[in-house]
């Protein structure tokens, strides 16, 4: 009986020891779970609960910087954190609007400094500068200019980067920096680039002239002279057309004033009679010269021609006639004719019935002086 009692006590002690041994790991597991749970609920500022955020400093609600880049080619174009690759065919690059990165063939993910922007400009400008034969395009060059000024004005070029924070500091001190500052810096930067390129193109073309024969050089210079003459002629034509518009409007105003005077009881202007003497040689010469310019005939053939024969009263010739009359009034510094305009009809001038030939018209002009 005593042997069984001793054995029972030994078994009881053994069971208690085994229980303690089994309880210790369980206690450790509960303690670890408790600590981990509290750490995620109240993490220190330098820890993160999710391994994705470790080391990048961003949180789900924050904005990823647009111009981040990596020296690792495989990582270039990816968001910091290693996920969500940005597609270069997305709306970031193809908005259908002006895109300076696309025009200059640079990536917004790269660090663009003064040297990079200069190289991008030269690459495009050497093809599309208006002075480049064959591929030059003034329209495309204007886009290149705008792209350079845009990127430069953003403060992305070289030394300007350090000045981006300057407006903030000034604002804190109650001062402001004009928004035009960056735009002007962008224009100055482009002007510098354009001057460099223009000088280089001139040197290149001058060097190419050395390889041309005298006949080839004469041919090139002749074409250049023809081009400039044509350009000056177009500019002169446009200047004349602008002056004619002003002249016609002046005649319309004179006509309106004359109508008002007649409605107020004023007497109509008296019609000029046939002069007793012909116009002076100088007056006739000026009239013949202007009309000869208009119709392209020698002045010697005009004296006995009628105004009808040269299309003076033809509505389809009014544009040319109006230029001729305007120039004559400028030559003589006088109002020579009145212009009539009726709805649905072309404009025409008022002349006495006896004015039939160019010589008669010269006589009429001298009566108006």
TrEMBL record:
Residues 63-90 are annotated as: Disordered. Pfam families: DnaJ (PF00226). Residues 99-156 form the J domain. InterPro entries: DnaJ_domain (IPR001623), J_dom_sf (IPR036869). It comes from the Eukaryota. This is J domain-containing protein.
């Amino acid at each position: 009986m005593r042997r069984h009692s001793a054995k029972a006590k030994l078994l009881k002690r053994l069971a208690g020891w085994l229980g303690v041994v089994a309880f210790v790991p369980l206690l450790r597991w509960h303690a670890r779970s408790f600590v981990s749970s509290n750490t995620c609920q109240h993490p220190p500022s330098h820890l993160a609960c999710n391994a994705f955020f470790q080391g990048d400093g961003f949180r789900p609600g924050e904005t990823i910087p647009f111009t981040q880049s990596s020296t690792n080619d495989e990582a270039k174009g990816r968001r910091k954190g290693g996920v969500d690759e940005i597609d270069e065919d997305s709306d970031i690059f193809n908005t259908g609007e002006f895109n300076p990165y696309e025009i200059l063939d640079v990536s917004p993910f790269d660090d663009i400094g003064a040297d990079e922007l200069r190289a991008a400009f030269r690459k495009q400008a050497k093809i599309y500068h208006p002075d480049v034969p064959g591929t030059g395009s003034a329209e495309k060059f204007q886009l290149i200019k705008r792209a350079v000024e845009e990127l430069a004005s953003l403060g992305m070029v070289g030394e300007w980067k350090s000045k981006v924070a300057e407006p903030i500091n000034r604002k804190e001190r109650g001062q402001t920096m004009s928004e035009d500052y960056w735009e002007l810096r962008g224009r100055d930067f482009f002007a510098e680039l354009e001057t460099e390129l223009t000088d280089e193109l001139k040197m290149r073309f001058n060097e190419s002239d050395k390889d041309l024969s005298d006949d080839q050089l004469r041919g090139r210079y002749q074409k250049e002279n023809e081009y400039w003459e044509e350009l000056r002629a177009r500019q002169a034509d446009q200047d004349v057309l602008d002056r004619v518009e002003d002249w016609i409007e002046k005649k319309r105003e004179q006509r309106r004033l004359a109508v008002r005077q007649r409605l107020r009881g004023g007497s109509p202007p008296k019609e000029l009679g046939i002069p007793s003497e012909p116009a002076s040689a100088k007056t006739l010469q000026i009239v013949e010269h202007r009309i000869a310019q208009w119709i392209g005939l020698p002045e010697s053939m005009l004296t006995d021609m009628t105004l009808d024969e040269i299309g003076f009263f033809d509505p389809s010739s009014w544009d040319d006639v109006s230029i001729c009359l305007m120039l004559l009034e400028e030559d003589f510094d006088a109002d020579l004719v009145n212009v009539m305009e009726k709805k649905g009809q072309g404009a025409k001038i008022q002349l006495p019935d006896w004015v039939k030939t160019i010589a008669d018209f010269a006589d009429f002009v001298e009566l108006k002086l």
